[in-house]
Amino acid sequence: MPLALLALAAGGFGIGLTEFVIAGLLPEVATDLAVDEATAGWLISGYALSVAVGAILVTAAVSRWPRKQVLLGLMVLFVAGNLICAVAPTYDVMLAGRVVAALCHGAFFGIGSVVAAGLVAPERKAAAIATMFAGLTAANVLGVPLGTLLGQQLGWRSTFWAITVIGVVAMVAIASLVPATSPDEEPALPLRHELGAFRSRQVWLSLGVTVLGYGGMFGAFTYIAYTLTGVSGFSSGAVPWLLVLFGAGLVVGNTVGGRAADRSVARTLVVAMSLLVVVMAVFSVGASSKPLTLVALVLMGALGFATVPALQMRVMQHAGDAPTMASAANIAAFNVGNGFGAWIGGVTITAGLGYASPLWAGALVTTAGLLVLLVAEAQVRRQSSASKASGLSSSENLLAGQTRANTLPTTRSVAT
Fold first, then answer.
1. Computed from CA positions of residues 10, 51, 247, 134, in that sequence, does the dihedral angle turn out positive or negative?
2. What span, in angstroms and rounded, lies between the C-alpha atoms of 58 and 84?
3. Which of 156-165, 223-232, 249-258, 306-315 shows the highest mean pLDDT?
4. Do residues 318 and 206 make contact, with C-beta atoms less than 8 angstroms apart?
């Protein structure tokens, strides 16, 4: 495994940590900055919105720059954003710091996916992308609990100081280990060429699968603490450790999903999403059982994140020779899915359907994503069959022409 992949994973770890750790520190941040819970919540939703917007706009702005320089510039942006958060005297400054840090998120993972895929042989591209995303999963399993603990013991600002240091370390690692050009990296393409990827119907279908397929799982996860305490009967103090189980599932799913996607992207997505629907549906009706809840948490995390490398690979494959913007757009789609899934889950709870309702709602949303995937793959098969038939027809015509050409002189010879 190229060491450059570890450098990219380090950047992913820092970015994942700054995205998720704020949830565990929100009460302390709200109290210190003198805002209510709803206002403090914009530090999370505002970040997600900025990721979605930044993934497209920032990537478009840097499309002509060398990718290594772009990654380093994005890490500078990340460090600056978290430094602003660490010293923020007011809520408005804190929110601005979150926005600055978020702007690098989508572009980093989008461009990083292209760089990671270019560092390895074609048959290992999905596994390379999974290695980069392993930093994100590690942030969930280790970074968030430790970051929350640090913030609770030494003040929430200490966590953002630590994230700032992690950003500097990742930046040094990228500068030292990521090659100036990947082995198969193409020259920088004009933005118009990169945008041409969006003429592909399969790119749009891939983005739809990401929004729905991943959004269903995230919508269920958003309210999982309420499910665990209000339905499964666990204490609130047990929730962080239960989330470690979910995070362990993320790590396993990311690794296995990356390897499986290198064999078949379509099969990996169909199997993982189908099983995810079943797990969330069973979880929704059996959430009162603690043993079932423990198993379902691990499986939901594993199956949900097993789709990530394959989702990223699918959109890049169908983008052809212009994968950068499409890759970044897929990162935006993940965040749109996060917001959409969380909204759907909130609607079911507000409607009085209970704390298990986000689970079956998530199963329905992921089912919709699975249906879009099946339609997309059916179109791919039809196009492939049509291309083969067209190729066969051309070969037959060529052969017929050659036969006629060979027989004509013979005929003339006989006539003579």
1. negative
2. 20
3. 156-165
4. yes
Query: Are 60 and 191 a contacting pair, CB within 8 Å?
Result: yes
Report the percentage of the chain scoring pLDDT > 90: 30
What is the b/e burial string over 371-383, where b = at least 16 CB atoms within 10 angstroms of the residue's CB? ebbbebbeebeee
Q: Which of 165, 124, 109 is nearest to 334 (CA)?
A: 109
Contact partners, residue 155, CB within 8 Å, separation at least 6: 28
Q: What residues contact 245, with CB distance under 8 A and at least 6 apart? A: 294, 297, 298, 301
Exposed (0-12), middle (13-18) or buried (19+): which is 415, by Cβ within 10 Å? exposed
Torsion of CA 231, 299, 12, 326, to 10 degrees: -110
Sign of CA dihedral 270, 275, 278, 280: negative
Distance CA 255, CA 135 (A): 11
Half-sphere exposure of 335 (CA within 13 A, CB side): 27
Residue with tokens 């993320």: 250
Chain centroid to Cα 48, Å, comes to 13
pLDDT tens digits for range 116-175: 888 888 778 888 888 887 887 788 777 777 887 788 789 889 999 999 999 999 999 999
Ordered domains of the chain (ranges, CATH): 1-188 (1.20.1250.20), 197-397 (1.20.1250.20)
The Cα 92–Cα 130 span in angstroms is 36
Nearest to 293 by CA among 223, 228, 220, 225: 228
pTM to 2 decimals? Answer: 0.74
Please tell me the distance from the alpha carbon of residue 265 to that of residue 267, in angstroms, as a whole number.
6
